[in-house]
Specification:
- This protein is of the alpha+beta class.
- The chain folds into two domains: 29-128, Immunoglobulin-like; 137-418, Formate dehydrogenase/DMSO reductase fold.
- The chain is built from 13 helices and ten strands.
- The strands form three sheets. A four-stranded antiparallel β-sheet has the order 1-3-7-6, with no helix packed on it.
- Helix 2 packs antiparallel against helix 3, helix 9 (283-313) runs antiparallel to helix 10 and helix 9 runs antiparallel to helix 13 (397-418).
- The chain is elongated.
- The N and C termini lie far apart (86 Å).
Length: 437
């Protein structure tokens, strides 16, 4: 049975990875100026080179100043339609510009793209191009799904390898843990792809029917979140492979490598988020954000593991699993609280930002649900745990499901918080030099 499930997963992954020549369309091979480049002299024209012949409208290429002023003229094709050129005027040194293009390929599709370049200054990322939109509720849902998938990968592995280490585990429970963690690894990859495309689409501003043909290369190669997406996609592919091999060939020790790699790859979300790009970011804020995320993933995923895996399939392990996870949860909550408090101090310059800024209000909402979850956990720890230790069975499953639900709500609010920009931090003026005597 398990070999059939694994074979299906491998076949699905291969189908996703296989090239689809039937979907071939015009792609941008090169440009002058190049995407996200810095040039020293204002160019007299913009040149786009495609891999096949294209047709263009007069405004197929638009070069825009920061205020939205159009600085490009009528676009024309050269070299048999593979090169598109538009004249430029009014560009100045010391400014950055946005290039938006959209052409029609021989198959009738209309690929488009956006990138930036600077003249004597660094080019902003394409997500900050003129006309780019901010994050929406779709981005929040995608980030929440990514957080949840990560929790369902890391949490069950932590429970099996740390809490139930050395215990004989029923076959049914072992199989469910294999299925849950392997499926979660593939889900992290799939949701990551969706989140990346949604983030890029906010800047591309293409109709839904043409988004499939948008040029995503500048986002994948020239942005923090794009590089993190590529590394995490490849990395979690390795995690999925490790879990598949561990499942099929009963190489259970490979799950240690899968857990360690998953925890390390989670840093990609911290290194590409606000904790890494805001003016007051530091290596310490990135570390705190990563610890906060990992602790939350183990906590949420561990609760789900107890509720949907251990309790229905292994009654004889309920006591050990709950007591062991309860001890672990104390440390996890401590890490979450300390790291979260530090990040809140870094991100909120003033206490009034808690109610006056959107970021602060979302943080307050998150803290409210965190308090509910911690109160729920306290009941488990101080009321129900002693009953288990005395050999009783307080019928915890429904309560565990309730706490898991609250924890998932916390992840949803955390996703919205991650996609929100914190209040700007005013840089202190440089100290004046002391007069020499």
């Amino acid at each position: 049975m398990k070999r059939t499930v694994v074979a299906g997963a491998v076949a699905a992954a291969a189908a996703l990875a296989a090239p689809a020549s039937a979907l071939a369309h015009a792609t941008l091979n090169d440009s002058t100026p190049r995407a996200q480049s810095t040039v020293q002299v204002p160019p007299g024209e913009i040149r786009l080179v495609f891999n096949q012949s294209v047709t263009v409208a007069s405004r197929a290429v638009q070069v825009l100043a920061a205020d939205g002023t159009l600085l490009s003229g009528t676009a024309t094709t050269r070299s048999g339609g593979t090169v598109v050129v538009a004249p430029l005027s009014g560009l100045e040194r010391g400014a950055a510009y946005t290039v938006r293009w959209r052409v029609t390929s021989s198959d009738g599709h209309s690929p488009g793209g956006v990138f930036t370049f600077g003249i004597g200054v660094p080019a902003p990322p394409p997500t900050e191009a003129v006309g780019a939109g901010g994050t929406t509720w779709r981005d929040d849902v995608a980030r929440w799904a990514l957080f949840s998938a990560l929790a369902l990968l890391i949490g069950p592995l932590a429970v099996r390898l740390l809490v139930l280490r050395g215990s004989p585990v029923p076959t049914a429970l072992e199989q469910r843990l294999h299925l849950l963690t392997t499926g979660a690894a593939f889900l992290v990859i799939d949701v990551g792809i969706v989140a990346f495309v949604l983030r890029a689409s906010n800047a591309l501003q293409l109709p839904g029917s043409d988004l499939l043909y948008g040029d995503l290369q500048p986002f994948a190669e020239k942005t923090r979140f794009g590089i993190a997406f590529l590394v995490m996609t490849l990395g979690f592919g390795v995690v999925a492979a490790l879990l598949l091999v561990a499942w099929v060939f009963d190489r259970l020790r490979l799950r240690w490598a899968a857990l360690a790699l998953s925890v390390a790859l989670a840093s990609g979300l911290s290194l590409s988020g606000h904790q890494a790009v805001e003016p007051n970011s530091s290596s310490l804020s990135e570390l705190a954000d990563w610890l906060h995320l990992v602790a939350a993933s183990v906590w949420v995923g561990g609760l789900a593991t107890l509720a949907i895996c251990v309790w229905p399939l292994a009654p004889e392990l309920r006591r050990r699993a709950f007591l062991g996870f309860s001890r672990m949860a104390v440390g996890l909550v401590g890490v979450m609280v300390l790291a979260g408090a530090y990040l809140a101090l870094v991100r909120l310059p003033a206490v009034s930002d808690l109610w006056s800024a959107q970021y602060g209000r979302v943080l307050l909402l998150k803290l409210t649900f965190v308090a509910i979850a911690l109160g729920w956990g306290a009941v488990h720890h101080f009321v129900l745990r002693p009953r288990l230790e005395r050999g009783g069975d307080p019928r915890l499953r429904s309560s565990l499901l309730g706490e898991t639900t609250i924890a998932l709500v916390v992840l949803l609010i955390a996703a919205a918080l991650t996609n929100s920009a914190p209040p700007p931090v005013t840089e202190p003026p440089p100290a004046t030099a002391r007069a020499t005597r």
